Amino acid sequence: MKKAILTGILFSMLAVVSAQNSAEKIIAGNQGLYIGGYGQIDFNLPTRDGAIYKNGTLDVHRIITFIGYNFNDKASFVSEIEYEHVTEVYIEQAFLDYKIKDNISVNAGLMLIPMGIQNLYHEPPTFNGVERTNVDKYIVPTTWREMGIGISGRSIEHSLNYQFMVVNGFNGYDDDGNFSGKNGLRSGRQKGAKSYITFPDFAARVSYYGQAGLNLGFSAYIGESESKAYNGLDLANETAVASADSTIIGVQMLGVDARYQKGALQLRGQYILANLSNTNQYNAFTAKDLGSKLTGYYAELGYNLLATYNTTNELIGFARYENYNTHAAAEGIEINEAYNRTDITIGLGYKVAKGAMFKADYQILSDASSEGKKGQFNLGVAVWF
User: Which of 38, 86, 270, 378 has the most other CB atoms within 10 Å of its CB?
Assistant: First the structure.
């Protein structure tokens, strides 16, 4: 009954809920092969902790190759192959897009969950700062992609983009619990790697672009985590079923975001709330410390310092305040204030071309468990083509 009710709610949202990821925009065009990519190369230097010296880190953080093909004016294939830290290889997207009619398409395969800004638009030159926001790491587990099928499109009359998806859920338990108080749901992403599913989860988004320079988004994700404790389960064994049920987490995540640009001015903000159910039983069974509520938000101000000069280059100065709390509430365990974290980031980004950027910033990192603060200096190279 619960699944049926949630399905009905989300199908009713379909008429007004939308998103369109950047890979779909890149591939839009004439029949044929499309190749592109993006990359991020970082240098991170933590400040000294008293007399303790800390080495800096140099990292080819990620290199992504985009390969797409338009079969005709209706059918397209999108794929992204990601190399992280030189040695790790992932498939970030791989789906078939089929246009039912103008402005409505069916998508099937490995797709981005339409939650927040950076999970959809995460090419490094599209955001300020060397690193992605931590709200989009610990609350929205970017890059968050799962297997499924969906409908996407737009209502030009109402200036809306929308997307609705049915996908597999997080891998919450596979002989051990994958969720934790510090990292939230992040370690449960299945990423299309032999993903399994017991019941489908649902994701949806609407994006409004009717005012010049303004983009508003609303996202929703509802479902339950998956568990391998159900494999081979005798449904007549009530004790075994109850034990398996304790490995399941209910997830209800909502997000609102806004982007605004007028001339040299850039404003960006986001708020994410995730309510998790059955965490008391889950923690007792797995000996984890998962919170029952996760929250995260940030507000960012940017300004192009070269706006009055006769140049196509941009020098963007920015400041961002960010809070992400994976223990905003907890059931049956004590709240860990170290998981209530705040980042203040101040930096510059120099765009030498539309898809090429040098970045530098300084971060002040703290949490609610103490008055101490840590600092980190970051340099980066960002490309997108």
Answer: 270
